[in-house]
From TrEMBL:
The lineage of its organism: Bacteria, Pseudomonadati, Pseudomonadota, Alphaproteobacteria, Acetobacterales. Belongs to the mannose-6-phosphate isomerase type 2 family. This is mannose-1-phosphate guanylyltransferase. Its EC number is 2.7.7.13. Keywords: GTP-binding, Nucleotide-binding, Nucleotidyltransferase, Transferase. Pfam families: ManC_GMP_beta-helix (PF22640), MannoseP_isomer (PF01050), NTP_transferase (PF00483).
């Protein structure tokens, strides 16, 4: 049996400001209507894999993952939640330990949730070859034949052919991201492949090698899985145990050290959608090499990528720029410097700017809210509540609220009252009152919330009851 494992813990800072910690790149529809996370999950079904996926991701994104899985018809996935980020070695170990409880000989196909892959027939052929090597107890990665001198990827040097295999080779060595000169040499010599970050291995074999080379990670994750708490359909890893695992990538922890590492040279089209220049390359372009998304107008621009979320963006007389416009941030970069955007995000974070990690629109298990206007002692928000969902029963110490329903019908609890608020009706919630909003209908409820008070922070919430157990 082949069990797909989707690794969804990345932050995607090089795709800021669309990708942020609160809603990272794998959940953003950058290239089409589906997100990279959804495309990764659907790819396993396209290849005919019958096993439901194991998804490993950040606890803060649990409801986003569940909803995006539901949207593509995946209802039975095992969603394993990391209480803290500990890189790919610990995430893969969590999936392997979880699967080993049922079948330690199962072959796991570990996939980052942020790659764009075309030519599924070639992918299926490579997967079959990788599985053959995995059945001989190898840990197999896919090496992509390079099509250009890419400096943003790691490389693998191909060794000699494995005994009894047609297209699986020992790995001579892993190489870090090269400079332009070395990357050009790698493309020319034909012995070097892009490191795709995907691995195929039996659960037992991966855990044996992890225990040999990183026993601390093995022990910490083993205990975290033993103490899991399954709640609301999620697999919650024990936080104390998991946090003891060092934060190390699987390349450093296992792949570069084990004598069981192997590579399958692969011809399918693969790209790590990790920066805006990669998005530009994958997006259809006009006759001047420009790729756009959203409300954009161009004049005498060439080889640009422009993405505007709502606000009209006009671009005149420039070449090779990336311009991203969101509701609260504008990012402009030369395309050749797109990999360096993360440095600016780090600077914003150091300055304490919320834009570094939080979106204007914040997703919650019941829907989302977004800030529209903020001033001295007041704030206006738009709140969207999905059918059948409800906010927590709560109160505030520093603010009063006024809710105006603009679509749908809301059921509002206010102290001892239950009030039905219909479209174009409103309700006032005085300071300190216990309140809750519920959507009992079949269409979303949209309301405008006006907050007033001396402190309007999100931490001024006392939850008395919450169906999502936050």
């Amino acid at each position: 049996m082949i069990v797909p494992v989707v690794l969804s813990g990345g932050a995607g800072t090089r795709l800021w400001p669309v990708s942020r910690k609160s809603y990272p790149k794998q959940f953003c529809a950058l290239l089409g209507k589906d997100t990279p996370f959804q495309e990764t999950v659907q790819r396993t079904k396209t290849l005919g894999l019958e096993a439901e996926p194991i998804v490993v991701g950040n606890r803060e994104h649990r409801f986003i993952m569940a909803e995006q899985l539901r949207q593509v018809g995946v209802e039975a996935a095992s969603i394993i939640l990391e209480p803290v980020a500990r890189n790919s070695a610990a995430a893969m170990a969590a999936a392997a330990f979880w699967q080993a409880r049922y079948d330690e000989e199962a072959i796991l196909w570990f996939m980052p949730a942020d790659a764009a892959i075309e030519n599924h027939a070639a992918l299926k052929e490579a997967l079959d070859q990788a599985c053959e090597a995995a059945r001989q107890d190898y840990i197999v990665t896919f090496g992509i034949r390079p099509t250009r001198a890419e400096t943003g990827y790691g490389y693998i040097q191909q060794g000699h052919l494995l005994e009894g295999q047609e297209n699986a080779y020992h790995i001579a060595r892993f190489l870090e991201k090269p400079d332009a000169e070395r990357a050009a040499q790698f493309v020319q010599d034909g012995q070097h492949l892009w490191n795709s970050g995907m691995f195929v291995a039996r659960a037992r074999v991966f855990l044996e090698e992890l225990k040999k080379y990183e026993p601390t990670i093995h022990e910490a994750v083993s205990r975290a899985v033993q103490k899991t708490d399954c709640d609301l359909g999620f697999v919650q890893l024990d936080g104390d145990a998991f946090s003891r695992a060092p934060s190390i990538s699987v390349d450093y922890a296992v792949a570069e050290r084990t004598d069981r590492a192997a590579v399958v040279p692969s011809g399918f089209s693969w790209m790590d959608v990790g920066s805006w220049d990669a998005v530009w390359e994958l997006t259809p372009k006009d006759e001047n090499g420009n790729a756009v998304r959203g409300n954009v107008f161009l004049d005498r621009a060439r080889n640009c990528y422009v993405n505007s979320d709502g606000v009209v963006a006009t671009v005149t007389g420039v070449d090779d720029l990336i311009i991203i416009v969101t509701g609260d941030a504008v990012m402009v970069s030369h395309r050749e410097q797109a990999q360096d955007i993360r440095h600016m995000v780090a600077r914003l974070r150091d300055e304490g700017r919320p834009e570094a990690e939080q979106h204007v629109r914040m997703y919650r298990p019941w829907g989302f809210y977004e800030s529209l206007i903020r001033g001295d002692r007041f704030q206006v928000k738009r709140i969207h509540v999905s059918p059948g969902e409800k906010l927590s029963l709560q109160k505030h110490f520093h603010r009063a609220e006024h809710w105006v329903v603009v679509a749908g019908t809301a059921l509002v609890t206010r102290d001892d009252e239950e009030i039905t608020v219909r479209e174009n009706e409103s309700v006032y919630l005085p300071l300190g009152c216990v309140h809750r909003l519920e959507n009992p209908g079949r269409i979303p409820v949209t309301l405008i919330e006006v907050q007033s008070g001396p402190y309007l922070g999100e931490d001024d919430i006392v939850r008395l009851d919450d169906v999502y157990k936050r």
